[in-house]
Amino acid sequence: MTKYSYTVTYNEGDITMLKAALELMIKHCQQKIDEGVDRAPYVHHKESAQNVLKRLRDNKNQMSSNNFNNNR
Predict the structure, then answer these.
(1) CB atoms < 10 A from the CB of 19, how many?
(2) Is residue 45 part of a domain?
(3) Residue 47 lies in domain
(4) Which contacts (CB < 8 Å, 24+ apart) does range 18-26 have?
(5) Contact 15, 52 (CB under 8 A)
(6) d(CA 48, CA 46)
(7) How far apart are CA 20 and CA 13, in angstroms?
(8) Rounded to an integer, what distance in angstroms lies between the CA atom of residue 29 and that of residue 23?
């Protein structure tokens, strides 16, 4: 199997949306598996979504911050 590697940059809002979408995908796939529908694509999609979800916050870099709470 051929594998590719990608570098993609997301902001915090993107990560929140992707997390919700992946969790929804996992839930949907599990429902289809439980219904006994052709399991093959749903098992694979569920595993892939779980793997991406685990890595979602890997290699994060802080791009900016504030000092509003500093007492001066």
Answers:
(1) 14
(2) yes
(3) 22-55
(4) 18/52, 18/56, 19/53, 19/56, 22/49, 22/50, 22/52, 22/53, 22/56, 23/53, 25/49, 26/50, 26/53
(5) no
(6) 5
(7) 11
(8) 10
Look up residue 69 and give its two tokens.
């709470």
55 and 18 Cβ atoms separated by less than 8 Å: no
| pTM exceeds 0.90 for this model | no
- Which SS3 state, helix, strand or coil, does residue 57 take? coil
36 within domain boundaries: yes
Query: How many domains are there within the chain?
Result: 1
pLDDT digits (tens, 9 = 90+) for 19-43: 999 999 999 999 999 999 889 999 9
- Is 69 within a domain? no
State the Cα–Cα distance between residues 26 and 29, nearest whole angstrom. 5
User: Would you state the structure tokens that stand for residue 59, as one six-digit string?
Assistant: 């290699």
Determine, yes or no, domain membership for 32: yes
